[in-house]
UniProtKB/TrEMBL annotation:
Keywords: ATP-binding, Cell inner membrane, Cell membrane, Membrane, Nucleotide-binding, Repeat, Sugar transport, Translocase, Transport. Pfam families: ABC_tran. InterPro entries: AAA+_ATPase, ABC_carbohydrate_import_ATPase, ABC_transporter-like_ATP-bd, ABC_transporter-like_CS, ABC_transptr_XylG, P-loop_NTPase. Residues 6-245, 262-507 form the ABC transporter domain. The keyword Transit peptide does not apply. It comes from the Bacteria. One of its GO terms (molecular function) is ATP binding. The gene is xylG. This is D-xylose ABC transporter ATP-binding protein.
Amino acid sequence: MSGYLLEMKGIAKRFDGVPALDGIDLAIRPGECIGLCGENGAGKSTLMKVLSAVYPHGTWDGEILLDGQPLRAQSIRDTEDAGIIIIHQELMLVPELTVAENIFLGNEPTLPGGRLNYPAMNRRAEEILRELKLPDVNVVLPVKNYGGGHQQLIEIGKALNKKARLLILDEPSASLTAAEIEVLLEIIRDLKAKGVACVYISHKLEEVAAICDTIVVIRDGKHIATTPMQQMNVDRIIAQMCGREMNQLYPTLPHEIGEVVMEARHITCWDPDQPLRKKVDDVSFQLRRGEILGIAGLVGAGRTELVTAIYGAYEGAYEGEVWLEGQRVNTSTPLKSIDAGFALVPEDRKHHGIVRDLSVGENITLSVLERYSRLSRIDGNLEAREIGEQIKRLALKTASPGLPITALSGGNQQKAVLAKMLLTGPKVLILDEPTRGVDVGAKFEIYKLMLELAAQGISIIMVSSELAEVLGVSDRVLVMGEGKLRGDFVNQGLTQEMVLAAAIGQGNNHG
């Protein structure tokens, strides 16, 4: 026996003749956590879909061995029966069902006669949630009652209930707070101690370094290196991922900051579920031409609500005024905002950024289709030229503009959304978490693009949960806390400590 729980040998997978995986090897022992690292589009998710039989045996080349025996799974049910459980980046919960029903989905215990054994389900669900440090979650309430972080941990509860021998976590912490990430890492440590093997995919390399025993790096579908974590650090992982040293995570490009171009006055947003509660409370600020304005704050501070209200996309009641170039403008709907000169790249690209049924190219030109219309037809050649230019401009990795947008990695989907909004020719570009779920190389490209746009005189508002990112690219930083504007700092000598102190309502709020 090799001592390995699972081995993948020479895995190759093609889409429309284009290789996505080219001879990848991966081996994992019981109780080991492997960090699977690579840039967006490197093939990480494709490899895990092969392993979990999203792509069934026979649709790829190579061999998978479980306990030394060939695994020829035809469906996710087959791999789950073998103890291989994948937690996808997109949550697989049914919002209307209870927490317990979601945890047992497809594995429900029954009573004689076939009725569901709800008491047993609820008891076991409560045990699992205690393990997940979620004792305050009521297992008989619909899962939609809980936020993204709780839902991510409930998804992990589903995996625990299935008696996982190998747990695959694909970007598990993208929607978690710092405290929830600590809980997640503690859960993984407990699972490792019980002999459960894990494959951990995350662009947050500090987490990878904290939890993983071995680092496997793939690049452009090829296996680059397998190295014990003791011999690695974050910089070395980045160098292997990118094939180059990333000495500078944040590019620099001089850009002139001009006169005040936009003003938000007295923006107030009410919670759609609790109409007396304010999510944003009387916030006013100015934005200058060619300026990158970062908005920081703790989770729940009201940052996303503020920018979606300015753009006319906030789902609850809101009020306030938006002024552009000295004129009050109508931004009551996204379409009116685009006409006025605003563009928004939303936080949740899966639900609000892309149209899943359309191709890469169709997504890119969606916001300016009238530009290519000739009478009642679309000028396909003109549209194709524009799509080609945008793909080149944003270094968007796609085998063809005709591929479904969902076939692209998260970072490349984000670039397609950016391309779509830039085609509208905005004066003010709002980016809400522009690099969430995006790898180091693609982040650098997005920052570079932001600086180039600022140099062209476009004003940018960027909301980000990553303080290092806010400080790395912003000219000025607004800090929000509990719906209020708590600080407005010029980004010179500004530290993370100063921003956090302002976010929790302490310290000098202007700099």
